[in-house]
Every structure is written in structure tokens, then in C-alpha cells.
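seq/struct pair 1
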Amino acid sequence: MKVKRSLCIASDLSELERLHDAVAELGEAGDWPPDLVYQVDLVLEELIVNTVNYGYDDDARHEIEVTLTSDEDVFTVEIIDDGHAFNPLSDAPEPDLDAGIEDRPIGGLGIHLMRVMMDDVHYRREENKNHLTLIKRRNG
């Protein structure tokens, strides 16, 4: 059974709880294994935190559209924001995972987790908005 949930959230970290609840709801509705739901939830949180903290030059309220779709085989997350153009597939360097924790710069691991935990990721810039699609397959 296909389940879809669309949310329009403010560019505020207090909105993360709504996202966590929505991911959990779709995971439960689709009888997804908890470890895969956790991966989707973690990656979504990292990307939203990055967008809120680094995506805008002002303190104005921005809207971020998040659409979650789950069926028996695929969990899809679509994120649309009006932040700076940023393609996480090409604009973010790979973190140095061999460096000691004190030698690493802050940041970069969230995008690394996205690349590792998601089965497919697609990005496009359209009408001055970032469109990021994350795909997690049950048997990925």
C-alpha cells in the first residue's frame, strides 16, 4: 500500500519533531524495518539542519517542502527549498574519515551519511529552488 505525506515546514529546527513523526508514521504504515526507517530519518534530519543553518543569508522565515512516500519496496523523500543553490552530490567534499576527530573540520558527515545510507539521490535546481530526492529501497 502506498502512503504519502506532504509537509510544509518553516526554516526552524523546532520543526524536526514533525518530520520525525511523519517518517515514523510512514515507516510503521509500510511495515518498514526500524533500521531502515532510522536511516531515512537521520539523513532527512541532517539535510534539514544543513538547509536551516547554511542555506539562507537572512533570518527571514523560509518554507521547506518535504514529501514522504512509502510503499512496500521504496521509501522516497523529496525536499524542496529556496536556499542557496547547493548540489550535495557535487558541491560537498568527501570528509576525511581517517583524520582524528580533533583534526576534522566541523560538518560534512551528514552529506556523507546521505551518500552512504540512501540507495539513490537526485538533485536539480529549478525555478530558484533546490529539489533533492532521496530513495531508500527495502532490499537496497
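seq/struct pair 2
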Amino acid sequence: MDPSRSSCQIDPARLTRLLEPAQGRFTIEALSECSSTSTLLLERSRQGATSGALLVADRQTAGRGRRGRSWQSSPEASLTFSLAWRFSGDMARLAGLSLAVGVAVARSLEACGVAGIGLKWPNDILLDGGKVGGILIELETVPGGMLAVIGIGLNLQLPAVAAEELQEFLHRPAALAQALSAVPDRHHLLAQLLLDLAAVLDEFSADGFGAVRNEWQARHVWQDRQVRLLNDGQLDRQGICLGADTDGALLLLTSSGVERCLCGDLSLRVA
């Protein structure tokens, strides 16, 4: 037996039971260790992985965040997984998907009793200003539409970070353990996340990001604040952040008026 499968702390059978009555929407694979759940799931999507395919790993050795940043994980300190989800239409139809996924994650954490969850455009999950999680979405064209591989990583405990490494973080690290007397069991937390993801992705499929935009705006940490938008580390523009439009584009009030900013390689900073 492949040792990466034999000792995983996530039990697919137990997780499946917790997903009732939506258990038929997911196929679950659990590994004790892999390079990256998103990389593996993308490879499998090219081999016919279906919508609802879930890959969860206790430990990722080459997990990826936005712009190629690494995301290390361990079963003691984090929950990392990737979910494949199929959509009809082309890539333009998926504008704002990462923001919608953020709403689903926020719903789940709040349902588990976590207060102080905020969202930052386009893909950060914050807890009292610190980064508690991140989202990475990668797309694959499939017959009749698109397959999104949605990668999510959450800190359960604070990661061990050397002082000299902290300067590399835009936000200080945060963890669910800071907000809860007891961190939820990973099976229950993952089940809650999957159920909320399915609900939000159904809403998104029907009505796009506009279906959950008000929820995102209500949790937007930098709403109406002066911000700087960087492109590859260089100042692109600055202004008052008005949130996101129904396509998920960032809205900035600048000296030229309201400008729409699409994701690409843009990065948002508070001024």
C-alpha cells in the first residue's frame, strides 16, 4: 500500500458521513503527504477528474499560494485541501470566483464560532488583521466549460516562523487557536467548509459573484480606506477602496474617478 495513503489523519469514510445529505456530491481522497494538492488535482483533471473531487493532505511539501508563494502545512498546524468544481461557460464566466470562495470560508469559520473574520481582495482570509488562510484557484478548460481547482489552506495553530522571516509576510500569521478555546476537529471543520462551498458555488453558478457580493463587502477589511495597488511590487495606483463590483473587480476611487482593477498580478496594500 502507498504509505502516503495509509496513515492520513483524515478518514474519508468519517468525512463522508459528516457530509450528509450532500455526500453524493463529493469524491474524497486523503493523503498523509504530497507535494501540492492543487498540482495533483490539476493533473487528475486532465485525466478526467469529476466535479466534486476532493484531495486533502495532512502535509504538503510544495504547497502553492498566489504568485508562486509557498504554503507549508502539517496536520498539527493546518488544514489544506483542493476541490475540483465544474462550471459551464468560458473563463470570463468565473470572474470573482476567488472572492465567492472567500465568502464560503468565512461562513464556515463563523459557523464554528470564530469571530473577527475578514476578507481581503482577492484571496486572503484574515482573523483580527492577521492572515489565517488563503485561496488559490486554477482553471482548466474541459469539454463544455471550465474546471476550477480551488485550493484552500487554513492555519489551525500559529506556524513556527523565524523572526527574520516575518518581514516576508504582508500580514502577520494568525490561527484559529487564537480565537477559539478548542480548535475544531479537522473532519468537522472540513465537512462544514465543503457544505458551505457547495452552497456558494451553486449560487455562483446561477448568478455569478453578484449573488454573494453583499456578504463579501460586509467582511471586506479595507472598505473605504486609502490603499495602494502594486503591480509586480511597483506602485500601480492608489485611492479609496470601494470594494468589488459584481464581476469581482476591485473598485478604487482615484483622482480620475472610480477605476476597475482586475486581478492579474496586482497586490493590495493599505496606505
